[in-house]
Amino acid sequence: MANEYRVNRETAKLSKVDGDLYIKRGAVDASDSGLIVSGVIRCDGDCEFIGDVEAQGIMSRKGDVQIMGSVKAESIDIKNGSLRVKDSITADRIRVNKKLEFGGPLTTDTVRVGGRMKAHGEIKASRVSVGGTFNADRAVDVDHIDVGGSLKIEGETTSRIIDVGGTFKAVGPLTAEEVDVGGIFKAESQVQLVSVKVGGTVSLEGGKVEKIIDVGGTLKVNERIEFGDIDVGGTVKLRNGGAGGTIDVGGTLNIQGDIQFNKIDVGGTVKIEGTATGETLSVGGSLKTIGDFSVSGRLKVGGKIAVDGDLKAQNIRVGGRIRAHRVEAEQFIETGDLRTRDGAKATRIEINRRGHVEGPLIGEIIILKDRVDAEDIYGDRVQIRSRCKVGNVYANRVHMDARSTAKSVTYTDELRIDSRASVSDGSQKSEKLPEPPF
User: Considering only CA atoms, which of 243, 251, 248 is closest in space to residue 231?
Assistant: First the structure.
């Protein structure tokens, strides 16, 4: 049977114990050379160690344990109390029921704290699990971090999985695979992440998120961000542009700087202060850009578009007004109000009833529905329905319905004008039509 040395409600001066050490509401002074215990240290009630401590294990049934030095053990188990270590901790397993605080580096496999954890030194571990709050002043290198309340790391963070129930604030650089936060996530330095899932709000300084940023509320990014996909229920603000895949936003999207994307799908409004290049865009409300906007596929907007630059897409369908320097679509443009400086060009252009057009229209098939006002038209087949008013028409085939007016008509193949339509400067057949503006 192993020897046991007992300290009962007193301060004992010790340096070495061959066997176990039992302390009841007492203290050990090992300030000269430290304390080495070949067995296990068992504490009952509040216990204090002055100096460095090394043991096979440290256990406490109740009460707080304070070590005014460093500690090294295979396991530390404080069942109903707190542990405070002035310097470093080296242990395979640590479990503390209430609060764990230490001033030097922590090296361990697993740490489990029921309440709070305060780290003034660096941390190297496989897993850290904290029920309440976890604050770290220096670098944290932990494979899996699980915090029920709030997490704040001042130094650099390197991890595989970070799971926080409340709030997570990363002051230093952050590198991780998965970040899952129930409330608020804020990163004040560059991030290198694979995926982010947050129930509330996210604020990033910039960096890269390889797969997805999934946010229930709002997302704000201060510097350029590279991303796989962005899926946000509320609002997104990118203050310095970025590049990535799909941007899916339930509310509003605001981007300052250039943006490259595959798909934008926004329920509310989109504002981009920079050049935008992508594949498809669908917006329930309005789109406003300061700079050119180009997608290789479909562009669909329920409200209006205002582009302080050129607008290009494979096809364009807009419920309200389009305003741009120049509009080009490979397939079709469909809208009720089209206002350009240089004109609009597509294979097929269709202007809805009571529509308005500023700038020339250029296309193969151009259809103006009832009561449309337009300027010059260049096309293969042009259909002008009733009560429209247009400028000069240049087309191979022209059809004008009743009570429509045109300044002039030049055609090559066919002209059909209702008897109640009129051409103020007359019509003429020509072998060749003039070239369109572009």
Answer: 248
The encoded tokens of residue 233 equal 């229920």
Q: In the prediction, which pLDDT does 2 show?
A: 56
Pairing of strands 218-221, 89-96: unpaired
Average pLDDT over residues 334-356: 98
Name which of 56, 148, 45, 140 is nearest 102 in CA terms. Answer: 140
* φ, ψ at 205 (rounded to 5°): -80, -30
Which pLDDT does position 3 carry in this prediction?
A: 81
For the record, the structure tokens of 199 come out as 């129930």
Share of the chain above pLDDT 70, in %: 100
**Measured between alpha carbons, how far is 190 from 184 in angstroms, rounded to an integer?**
17
pLDDT category at 1 given cuts 50, 70, 90 is very low
Number of neighbouring beta carbons within 10 Å of residue 366: 27
What does the alpha-carbon distance between residue 381 and residue 411 come to, in Å, rounded to a whole number?
Answer: 10
The SS3 of residue 234 is coil
Please check the confidence at residue 301 and state whether its pLDDT lies above 60.
Answer: yes
Q: Is 149 helix (H, G, I), strand (E, B) or coil?
A: coil
Q: What's the pTM? A: 0.93
Rounded CA gap, 164 and 328, in Å? 48
Both tokens of 95, joined, read 């479990």
